[in-house]
UniProtKB/TrEMBL annotation:
This is Sugar ABC transporter ATP-binding protein. The chain holds residues 21 to 255 of 305 of the full protein. It comes from Streptomyces cadmiisoli. One of its GO terms (molecular function) is ATP binding. Keywords: ATP-binding, Nucleotide-binding. The keyword Nucleotide-binding applies. It comes from the Bacteria. Residues 4-235 form the ABC transporter domain.
Length: 235
């Protein structure tokens, strides 16, 4: 069954109806792509799932149970991690330190804070490698990495800290062809580790490369909701 589900969900800001009547399901090990032009309601959808805003109509369910998160922390505690476009990384801090940044926020399966520095470094290195991210030097400031690599570190971090659902906000929007390819590979790696992924993008090509399900928003409502098999040319 879906980890996260929207049933007729919507959100109004005063009398502006940003999102209306949206049905969406996120399954473990699957990528749900949400497409749409500016103003379509993509950010609003992220916000009502990640705890930044509350929905004003319909239901948001986690593991089949209706929820109404009031803070991102509550969403995180249920395993819903969001990687924003501008990323919560500190540019001048080493890569390994960034990997553990905010770890005191998350429940995590183990007492992360008790790791000593050498073990933090080793863990960051191992986890990044597991996800296929090979960096020669974890001491370098994360700001020296490309935008694509920083996205990958943020994804690997969420996976390590036990996220079950990963919400990616336009992770490839600012990237070139090659870096986009790298990020799409990590999205696939997260999916293969069993995470449910909500991939927000306005790029249909990127969506098609990793997507299992496609939802297209237009002016706040679903214009299309299709499984891969319904739109695929593959037989
Ligand atoms: P997208 O992320 O697809 O560009 P948004 O969810 O940001 O779309 O916006 C959907 C609609 O809701 C737009 O018309 C936008 O102006 C409006 N909107 C978004 N956030 C707010 C807000 N906090 N207050 C009022 N209107 C908003
Ligand atoms: P909320 O009122 O749901 O907490 P925000 O804190 O995001 O919403 O926004 C506060 C106010 O800023 C909104 O009520 C709205 O007037 C304005 N606002 C923010 N983002 C937008 C947007 N994208 N379009 C129009 N108005 C916006």
């Amino acid at each position: 069954r879906p980890v996260v589900e929207l049933r007729g969900a919507g959100k109004s800001y005063g009398n502006i109806r940003a999102l209306h009547g949206v049905d969406l399901a996120v399954h473990p090990g699957k990528v749900t792509c949400v497409l749409g032009d500016n103003g379509a309601g993509k950010s609003t959808l992220i916000k009502i799932v990640s705890g930044l805003h509350q929905h004003t109509e319909g239901e948001v369910l986690v593991d089949g149970e209706p929820v109404r998160f009031t803070t991102p922390r509550e969403a995180l505690d249920r395993g819903i991690a969001t990687v924003y476009q501008d990323l919560a990384t500190v540019p001048l801090m080493p890569v390994w330190r960034n990997f553990f940044l905010g770890s005191e926020m998350t429940k995590g399966p183990w007492p992360v804070r008790r790791l000593d520095i050498p073990r933090m470094k080793r863990t960051a290195d191992e986890e990044l490698r597991n996800m296929g991210i090979v960096l020669d030097d974890l001491e370098q400031p994360i700001g020296t990495l490309s935008g694509g690599q920083r996205q990958c570190v943020a994804i690997a971090r969420a996976v390590y800290f036990g996220a079950r659902v990963l919400i990616l906000d336009e992770p490839t929007a600012a990237l070139g062809v090659k870096q986009s390819g790298v990020v799409l590979k990590y999205i696939a790696a997260a999916r293969d580790r069993g995470l449910g992924v909500i991939f927000i993008t306005h790029n249909p090509h990127h969506a098609y490369m990793v997507g299992d399900h496609f939802s297209v928003l237009r002016l706040g409502t679903l214009e299309l909701s299709a499984e891969r098999s319904e739109i695929s040319l593959e037989e």
